[in-house]
Amino acid sequence: MLATKNLRLVPWILALTLAPLTASAADASHGEKLWKKCRSCHVLDESGKRKTGPTLSDIIGRPAGATGGYRYSKALAAAGKDGLVWTKESLDAFLEEPKVFLKGTKMTFRGMKKPEDRADLIAFLETAAMTPTLQDAHADPELPAEILAVEGDPDYGEYLSGTCTTCHQLSGGDEGIPAITGWTREDFMTAMFAYKNKNRENPVMQQITTPLSTEEIASLALYFESIENTE
Amino acid sequence: MRLDRRQFIGTAAAATATLSAPMVKAGSHGKPKVVVIGGGAGGATAARYIAKDSKGEIDVTLIEPTRTYYTCFFSNLYIGGFRDFASIGHTYGKLAVDYGINVVHDWAVGVDRDAKTVALASGSSVPYDRLIISPGIDFVDGAVPGWSVSAQNKMPHAYKAGSQTQLLKAQLEAMPQGGTYAMVAPPNPFRCPPGPYERISMVAHYLKNNNPNAKILIADPKPKFSKQGLFEDGWERHYGGMIERVGPDFGGDKVEVRPDTMELVIDGEATKVDVCNVIPAQKAGRIAELAGVTNDKGWAPVEAFGMTSKMDPNIHVLGDASQQGDMPKSGFSANSQAKVCAMAVRGALTGSKVFPAKFANTCWSLIESDDGIKVGASYEATDEKIKNTGGFISKNGEDAATRKATYEESVGWYAGITADMFG
Which residues of B touch A167 (CB under 8 A)? Predict the structure, then answer.
């Protein structure tokens, strides 16, 4: 067990020591533009609103996997327990290629190649948590408790999932279209209702969700929650 | 530890022995048998879902002549140089290995509906309890005067992907500078309504970069076509002056071709062309006709709740070959119909739960690099037909980021649907 644990530590420790530091003249306003890539899944405040990913409020200096109530991938939770802290340096290495830095992360973002971009984004994240005006205005509306409480039928969800898997891969592959496996039931329902109610813009997803009832969305949420990424 | 699918399939036989016997409505020959003719978006998906979801309770045989299946969808992107040929080819190994499907590479040449058997070109015959026919399209004989399959080497259709697609691309690349690429577009209904016009876009993309003085001439029997406003706007922005379309108001419906002299005759006027891509009028794949499940228009009418043939309750027809109502003939539609059909077939053969039929379709098209458009809709089953319950379409004037995202989405869809078909 110990050996496995140490092996798991190796990739990000290596990455940290090799990651170049390019934070010298970071441009937070450019970082705010880059934030658009993040905000479909993350919010920057602690208002209780959550999307697919955890809040990034006060991310710098926070131990990995430490936001209460968010269901992290096993890989990220383990890295946090092993001591990974989100410093500017570790975030830089993570953002370059998340799935290489932390194999098994469920973050579907493919990575940000340019070191300057990463530095700008990190500079924005550093200031954003302290600047309420920069908070994401596009956060999904919270679902009323009575909708979240609707019970789904996982068998029905599995059947309905056929509509999703024409585009979304059960393996968790996310080229061009995001992975939807392993989301919490709440996150899944919140996102689906955001499309159904036209708070999110993609017309295909608006079309797919419009005819779905609350029970059908709850069934899909139950089903996809049970699927672990294999990629 | 969660069992993965492969482990699950492996243990399924053992597991079913210990469970209470399922309600099997089979003949005297043991497990119920499903035979699927055609390994495309309809057939491969149906075979995979029945095998996967019945967990070994149903024997599934898939009859598909080709060892490597080239998808018609995205074959235009190969012509435009956005994909290589190998990337649109798929094999059936996973369906055999991971899902236990009996994959038979042969032609189905007849269906005995009384004996419930499918005859193969090799001479053998395969029994079924339920037969799913998903053969795609064939061409209507004599639809374009002067053209026949024996002329398809000179004037390719490239509307069944494979060697025809490669041939058309080779002819495009061999065009003389300033030459003319002609297309004879098909009348409705036909496979992939935006397909001919996406192809024109991809041909124009190639010519713009390699043969900028070349011309494209389309003879079209239809007054209107799918996503017309979006395509024409894109053609104007990217390929101004290169593309001329002759609709029925100017004789686009009165066409003849002369393969020996490479002439396209529109309303009596002959034009010498360098490439002539003839996409004739279409009908259901021949085996549907041989099975006796097609109507006088050449398509196979089906009911909407399980894609069951209106001619035979033990036969289902999927995809392009079916006449089901409002869904366009597309790979996405066939894949969507296949899942409804798979559920209905399992329900009939093993008593598994049957849920309401729901269908969806989206057709993405690429006009130029990073300029993608889409049209889509949702559908439900009614007693009369598969009914459109509302749709959407891209808009002219969308920003470049939206168009790029639409293209990237289509690439994701291709990865998704091919994984859904072939495992």
Answer: 362, 409, 412-413, 416-417
Q: Where are the alpha helices (DSSP H) in B39-132?
A: 43-54, 75-79, 93-97
Instruction: Answer for the pair A53, A73: CB distance below 8 angstroms, yes or no.
Output: no
Comparing alpha-carbon positions, the chain B residue that sits nearest to A176 is B412
Give yes or no for A24 touching B (CB within 8 A).
Answer: no
How many angstroms separate the CA atoms of B363 and B388, rounded?
Answer: 15
Phi, psi of B190, rounded to the nearest 5 degrees? -150, 165
Q: Please list, in sequence order, all residues whose beta carbon lies within 8 angstroms of the beta carbon of residue A145, skipping any fewer than 6 positions away.
A: none
Burial of B260 (0-12, 13-18, 19+ CB in 10 A): exposed
CB of B4 within 8 Å of any CB in chain A? yes
For residue B78, give Cα distances in angstroms to A90, B88, B191: 41, 8, 18
Ranges A96-105, B133-142, B364-373: which has the least confidence: A96-105
Residues 6+ apart with CB under 8 A from B313: none
Going from the C-alpha of B272 to that of each of B156, B182, B266, the distances in angstroms are 16, 9, 11
Chain A residues close to B362, C-beta within 8 Å? 167, 204, 207
- Which residue type sits at B300? A
3-state helix, strand, coil in chain B (%, to 5): 30, 25, 40
**Residue B128, amino acid:** Y
- Mean of all residue pLDDT scores within chain B: 94
**B336 and A155 in contact by Cβ < 8 A?**
no
A129, B246, B249, B402 from A118: Cα distances, Å: 17, 52, 57, 23
The pLDDT tens digits for B246-263 are 999 999 999 999 999 999
Residue A41 identity: C
